[in-house]
Amino acid sequence: MYLTLAILSSALIAQAAADSPPVSVNSTEDRVASPDPITQAAELIAATLTRPEEATVTGQPVTLLEALSSVPGDGKRFEVPHAYWRLTRAVADYRSRFDQFDQLSRIEARLDDAMLLETARASAAAELRMARLEVVSAQHDLAEAAGLPASASLPLPSDLPLVGEYLTKFEEVRKSRRLPDRARLIDRSLPIRRQVIEGRAAAVQASQDVLQATYEAYRTGQAGFHEVLSALRRWGGQHRAFAQTVSNYNHDIADYALAVAGTELDDRVPVSYTHLTLP
User: Fold this and answer.
1) What is the Cα gyration radius of the chain?
2) pTM given for the model
3) Residue 262: per-residue pLDDT
């Protein structure tokens, strides 16, 4: 009996998202239509990783499998999955900062709040530039780990990170080989991390409701502009916390899959994985 990693490419998840009509993750109507927490989380991460037309971040879409396949020899194959998910997280943070700046660009403030609004816009613009810098840095890290030519366009992730269940099959796997202690820890913690993802997705939705309610209260003179800015910061913070949680989940999956693969990471063991099988 030998162990291989079966592929259920997350590119298929990305394609499914592309083939579906755009779904707003911010409205009450959408939450009624999609009551399943995992569906909500999947829709949210897909929306979070969709670059707006006005985005200044550019690059060539690359799947995780393509990034792994470009590594010369054994190279840095074990580093590629982590570099890939770090870039995905950076892109998600950029989108969060972009949306915050966009919200501030469209807000209509009262005359006596004009200076506060201008200050907030300037701050958001600076944060957006910093987020772009983080993306470019993460792009270079992935390009280096994958051994991409210096003349090639910088990579952008086209695979969506997993937010659903990951089947470790730990008890089956450990019968055929010795696994590190961290593999057992990951096996136990992944279900908890998935629950945290669901909670973070719900928190994003709740923060959107609060933001909308606060802005409506401001427009009717029942709330101050500081409250609007505070609600907007919480909304952006919840988006980034969600992206961080999803990133941690996928980093742990990468660690587990690579621990199982051990030194046998070859062309039979790409890491566009979502579950393990024992043939």
Assistant:
1) 21
2) 0.82
3) 62
